[in-house]
Amino acid sequence: MTDQAIHGKAVLSNGFVVRLSFVYGLCDYRSRRDLWKDLIVHAQLASSVPWLILGDFNVSRFPHEHLNGPPRVSKAMSEFNECLKSMEVDDIRSVGRFFTWSNKRVGNFAVNK
Predict the structure, then answer these.
(1) How many domains does the chain have?
(2) Residue 111 needs a FRET pair 20 to 30 A away by CA distance; which of 13, 15, 17, 77 works?
(3) Residue 112, domain member (yes or no)
(4) What pLDDT was estimated at residue 93?
(5) Which domain holds residue 51?
(6) Does a structural domain hold residue 109?
């Protein structure tokens, strides 16, 4: 366990093992660098079994994932994408409400993709 992730494993009734990581990335991209290092280490440990990573990374992968955000890939996005590439994991496409966070702003942010 770290300040940004909890790692464990689940053993199913048939004996099948799945590694699990629950993530809450810190808001500052420099602080998330420790998370990226931690996940890369766990990727090497989990290479022989399925691994499910869930949570809030507090960074998106691409500019189009922001409503009215800047149209460029930020340093934080680049570092997140490099981490995912290094871990050799797939980002499973989400369905339903695409924008779920409004920073307490008023308006309709319920855009489906």
Answers:
(1) 1
(2) 77
(3) no
(4) 79
(5) 5-87
(6) no
Q: Which residue has the tokens 């940004």?
A: 4
Establish if 98 belongs to a structural domain. Answer: no
DSSP sequence for 59-93:
S-SSGGGSTT--SS--HHHHHHHHHHHHHT---PP
DSSP type of residue 104: T
pTM of the entire predicted model: 0.81
Q: Quote the tokens at residue 28.
A: 């500052």
pLDDT tens-digit profile of 3-37? 999 999 999 999 999 999 999 999 999 999 999 99
The DSSP bridge pattern shows strands 17-24 and 51-56 to be parallel
- Tell me 112's DSSP state: B
**In the 3-class helix/strand/coil scheme, how is 7-52 assigned residue by residue?**
EEEEECCCCCEEEEEEEECCCCHHHHHHHHHHHHHHHHHCCCCCEE
Q: pLDDT tens digits for 47-57? A: 788 999 999 99
Residue 45: inside a domain: yes
Give dist(CA 48, CA 21) in Å, integer. Answer: 15
pLDDT reading at 99 higher than 70: no
